[in-house]
Amino acid sequence: MQEFQTNKANLTQARLQETPVHTLGDGEVRVKVDRFAFTANNITYAVMGDQLRYWQFFPPNGDEPEKWGIIPVWGFGDVIESNSDALPVGERLFGYFPPANELIVTPKRVTQSSLLDGSAHRAELPPGYNLYQRVNHERGYDRAHDDQRMLLFVLHLTSFCLHDLLNSNDWFGAEQVVIISASSKTSIGLAYGLTDDKDAPHIIGLTSNRHIDFVKSIDAYDSVLSYDTLEQIDATKPTVIVDMSANTDVLSRLHRHLGDNMRYTSNVGLTHWDEPRHAEGIIQERSQQFFAPSHVQQRMKEWGPEEFNKRSMQYIMNSTAKTSAWLKIQELDGVNGLLEVYKDICEGKIAADEGLVVVMGD
């Protein structure tokens, strides 16, 4: 039994830690982790681990627990032992897992379709991350689509929320939307949603030279430019920016180029997580950090959970279908396989059209 741990002070360093066998207490359930996705989004969880409490979901085993942390992942697991009458052996769950062989949960608020993990250390954490879907009870559930769901569902949920933010604010008065780090799967999910929206402004994707051919090939953006040529963007047009990269050099150049026509920047991702966070020229008063779970909670209050799920799932199904046409899934053999490529993930060396899925053995 092993778990994948990351050095919180040096995110490029990771280790595999042996885990002790946990004897189930009353109401507890043992879930065998079957498979999970690992993307640049997981590195964002690590970067924001202290600030947004991602390190608190799964306390690490082994020595120096204050030094090491467990990055949460989205995946599937199967109940193999249960002391809960509400959740029998054989249930299959989709949700937040540690990159490890198993997870112990204490089910609460169990319905036909979902449950919350009521473990004490997760009680104060965002409920959306403590929710597990009982997928065997979903109409038309098919394991063949598990990989796409793990890789894209959460990313494209963020895409949906960003589209909703822009649309509900009348695009902040912009005539063009610039998406930085256009090759990221969240960026592409947003671009597909904007493309399908007849009221959306012109969509410009900014990306690195090595990704430009790929970004042009997926037919998600109206135009695509490299970071080197961002000054070709028409600075006479009011512009909204969605920044998935946290590349402060690119962002400050873009802000300076657009000047007063930079109407709003939504800071979302951290593809360039090791960059300094502040730079001269960035218009801070018209920039705001975006946190998808907060947007989800707000919309659920306003629309109701059923309406939110209806709108978001329609969006996600459309964007996922388009993405699946070019997405190449690469399977890794357990946490050992993840350890082998982890540094490449941190350094952004995974091809933009690839999705990594870790398959856990028995």
From TrEMBL:
InterPro entries for the chain: DUF2855, GroES-like_sf
Organism: Psychrobacter nivimaris
Protein name: Bll1370 protein
